[in-house]
Amino acid sequence: MARILGVSSSPRKKSGTEYMVKLALEEAEKMGMDTELVSLRNRKINPCIHCDKCIRENMDRCAIWEDGMTPLYDVFYQADGYVFGSPVYEMGVNSQMAAFYDRFRAVWMVLQKDYKFFYNKVGGALAVGGARSGGQEFTILRIHNFYSTMGITIATMGAPQYNGATGWSNGGTFEALLEDETGLNQARMLGERVALAVKKMSG
Ligand SMILES: Cc1cc2nc3c(=O)[nH]c(=O)nc-3n(C[C@H](O)[C@H](O)[C@H](O)COP(=O)(O)O)c2cc1C
User: Fold this and answer.
1) What percentage of the chain has pLDDT greater than the value 90?
2) What are phi and psi of 26, to 5 degrees?
3) What's the pLDDT at 61?
4) Where does the pLDDT of residue 202 fall: very low under 50, low under 70, confident under 90, or very high at 90 and above?
5) φ/ψ of residue 127, rounded to 5
6) What is the CATH number of the domain that holds 109?
7) Distance CA 50, CA 59 (A)
8) Domain count, the chain
9) Which residues have C-beta atoms less than 6 Å from ligand 1?
10) pLDDT tens digits, 137-147
11) Ligand 1: which of 8, 10, 89 to mutate, judged by most atoms within 8 Å of the beta carbon?
12) Rounded distance from Cα 77 to ligand 1 centre (Å)
């Protein structure tokens, strides 16, 4: 069965981002997808130090750190689709998400062997901000850029949400996010969108 990996980079226990990623995954499950949610909360991920040991040793994962990132390589490589969500920090992804991304330096070696490795995988993005227009779209684009570095096919949304699902927590509370019906609905639609594309692409 095709599998969709959801990643939430929020460090908070009552997180709107995680909630929206879950909504997307629930929708994907209704479409017959297997799903898995990974939270970066409490997961220690060291920053990439650009030592390039992974590249010199032709590895598909980090060659120097054993940390919270270690088990995520296989989970990531084996998934058929992705729903990544980040809270908006300073109008972009938070540092937890950035650290997660940077640790994929070794993907260069995966693509050297097979540049099409990610072509039939599909990624969608969502972001939750405290302000109504606080940088959700920039954050989503940053997630899309990560997908682009791999060759992952990006799931766009069309009208009215265009590039992904945007949540508004009106100052940063979980309760307020629950009242953002528009954003929650977009998350559901994103899950459906990714699942439909995965179905087509994974045959
Ligand atoms: C360091 C920091 C920077 C933030 N920057 C922004 C911002 O640029 N735009 C915005 O709309 N909200 C910003 N916020 C608010 C969070 O995006 C908001 O509280 C969001 O709901 C957090 O999502 P979560 O509940 O999933 O953790 C910031 C919060 C923090 C802690």
Assistant:
1) 98
2) -60, -40
3) 98
4) confident
5) -145, 145
6) 3.40.50.360
7) 14
8) 1
9) 10, 12, 15-17, 87-91, 128-131, 134-135, 169, 172
10) 999 999 999 99
11) 89
12) 29
What is the position in ligand 1's atom list of the atom closest to the CA of 17? 26
Which residue has the CA at smallest separation from atom 21 of ligand 1? 172
Mean pLDDT over residues 23-47, rounded?
Answer: 98
**Three-state secondary structure of the chain:** CCEEEEEECCCCCCCHHHHHHHHHHHHHHHCCCEEEEEECCCCCCCCCCCCCHHHHCCCCCCCCCCCCCCCHHHHHHHCCEEEEEEECECCECCHHHHHHHHCCCCHHHHHHHCCCCCCCCEEEEEEEECCCCCCHHHHHHHHHHHHHHHCCEECCCECCCECCEEEECCCCCHHHHHCCHHHHHHHHHHHHHHHHHHHHHCC
Asked whether residue 203 carries a pLDDT value surpassing 80, the answer given is no
Looking at the whole model, is its pTM more than 0.85? yes
Residue 74: predicted pLDDT: 98
The parent domain of residue 148 ranges over 3-201
Question: Which ligand 1 atom sits nearest the alpha carbon of residue 12?
Answer: 27
How many residues in total does the chain contain?
203
Ligand 1 atom with least separation from CA of 19: 26
